[in-house]
From TrEMBL:
InterPro entries listed in its UniProt record: DUF1348, NTF2-like_dom_sf
Highest taxon above the source species: Bacteria
Protein name: Nuclear transport factor 2 family protein
Family annotation (Pfam families): DUF1348
């Protein structure tokens, strides 16, 4: 029996926002195995200049990512949606092992199968060095609290 990941397409404004928040929550867990389960087994990604195919590659990629991007905190926001696709903008903050802080901005295009699993993810991301005093994300590691402002409210 095939796994299903509601909400399912076709998306509405409400279900697209739910899907984006569920993705944000999973990525903020920094658990590569958990995150990978939201994708089809043969999911295809472009992340910056890296091309990834399948859950095993997703787990390997995310393991490398979070070993380098320390104290990672992410906020995602729906840009637009239609049928089985969602466009997302995001920003995340992290520091390297030398203590240098960054805010990474980007856009993602997502395509889902009928079971609500993401089969395609295309991400464009830019890194901005920031001073620690410029950080805007201060919640404890893990899920962003419901009362924490989103990207638009933060002016990002």
């Amino acid at each position: 029996m095939r796994m299903s990941r509601p909400p399912l397409p076709p998306f509405t404004a409400e279900t697209a926002a739910q899907k984006v928040r569920l993705a944000e929550d999973a990525w903020n867990s920094r658990d590569p195995e958990r995150v990978s389960l939201a994708y089809t087994e043969d999911s295809v990604w472009r992340n910056r200049a890296e091309f990834i195919s399948g859950r095993d590659d997703i787990v390997a990629f995310l393991t490398r990512k979070w070993a380098r991007e320390l104290d990672y905190r992410l906020i995602k926001e729906v840009w637009t949606w239609n049928d089985n696709r969602i466009a997302v903008r995001f920003a995340y903050e992290w520091h390297d092992d030398s203590g240098h802080w960054f805010r990474s901005y980007g856009n993602e295009n997502w395509e889902f199968d009928e079971a609500g699993l993401m089969r395609r993810r295309v991400a464009s991301i830019n890194d901005l060095p920031i001073a620690e005093s410029e950080r805007k994300y201060h919640w404890p590691l893990g899920r962003r609290p419901d009362d924490h402002p989103g990207l638009s409210a933060l002016g990002l």
